[in-house]
Design a protein that fits this description.
Layout: E1 2-3, H1 10-18, E2 24-27, E3 40-43, H2 49-59, H3 73-83, H4 91-98, H5 100-109, E4 117-120, H6 123-127, E5 137-141, E6 151-153, H7 159-169, E7 175-179, E8 188-195, E9 198-201, E10 206-209, E11 219-224, H8 232-245, E12 251-259, E13 265-271, H9 279-287, H10 291-299, E14 315-321, E15 327-334, E16 341-347, E17 354-355, E18 366-372, H11 375-383, H12 385-388, E19 389-393
Parallel strand pairs: 1-2, 2-3
Antiparallel strand pairs: 4-7, 5-6, 5-7, 8-9, 8-12, 10-11, 11-14, 12-13, 14-18, 15-17, 15-19, 16-18
Helix pairs in contact: 1-10, 2-3, 3-4, 4-5
Amino acid sequence: MLLGGIHYLLPVIRAAHQQGYYVITADYLPDNVAHQYSDEYCNVNITDKEAVLKAAKVLDIDGIISFGVDPGVVSAAYVQEQMGLPQMGPYESVRILQNKDLFRKFLKDNNFNVPEAKSYTTKEAALSDIEWLNFPMIVKPTDSAGSKGVTRIDNIEGYDAALDYAFEKSISGTVIVEEFVDKVGCSSDTDSFLLNGELKFVSFNAQRFDENAANPYTPAAYSWPSTFPEHEEYLRSELQRLLSLLNMKTSVFNIETRVASNGKPYIMECTPRGGGNRLCEMLRYATGVDLITAQVRAAVGDLVEGVEQKPYNSHWAEIILHADRDGIFSELEIDPNIPAKLIETDLWVKQGDLVHAFNGANDAIGTLVLQFEKSDALELVIKHQSEWIKIITK
């Protein structure tokens, strides 16, 4: 059973079919694209763990994952534990990893580098507790992904609106307010793989943003390698310590890390799911390691092979195609003189479709995969991508 129905699940379905598995996709939106490619569709609210468990029992499933679909991860862990299926890890540990409030507390209690943070269940409570705020701050839901509900505030004037936005996007009605960790270079947001409790494959990249986007905190591009190679071994060690403390078992993990201006590396997020934005596919291009097939095999208890640490074979970038404003999509223009090898164009909209300004990952309209021989060409394209790549809307 694969929770969700988004575009990013298509390679997961393909990998499962290549292994000979029967795939059931599940959510409450029957028109979602992934359901067109699965063998069966189950209509269920994936955030309702008891409803998912009931459906899973009726369907007599052999495994369950929520790849790239953050809201379903806790339900998947619950079903795994209740049905005795292959587990990513204990249900309570997954709850900690999936909840920003619980995760920050766990990091602090176990002496990891962690920003100061507090959570609130009402706007009134947050507004009455402002003495500790040290701007800039980040306000976000404790349980959302894809940058939904996230705002950076640089003064108290922006606090009220930021809280409204975060509460609006929170599933549980809880928001977290945390110290903004200013970064050196780029943050990393990419995928890794834990097999029987041991990190077998760890990757770090450079997460890029479009400062002109409607939400400038929604990732707009990724590149490999990272901008902090000298800190990667420390972060790998800390990630292994974290996952060992939580007794996690086997899963792909989407991990966000950064190095702050104070010189400290931080683990910002570590969730037991594949990341959206085709990160596992990019890693397959860059290293040849197939984390998607590893994940679907692990989900049903089959032997996982081929997951090993390998170097990047060149410089890679993924551009998240997005519109600057709401409008009607006309065309994608790519300058033929772009100093990169265009490996793949994956456009999800057609002429005449309505597209939205880039407020979150769900507003993406496709991706480009680019390969570079040298890092300076990559930096040139990433920093000036609007000169090479244009989304024309009317």
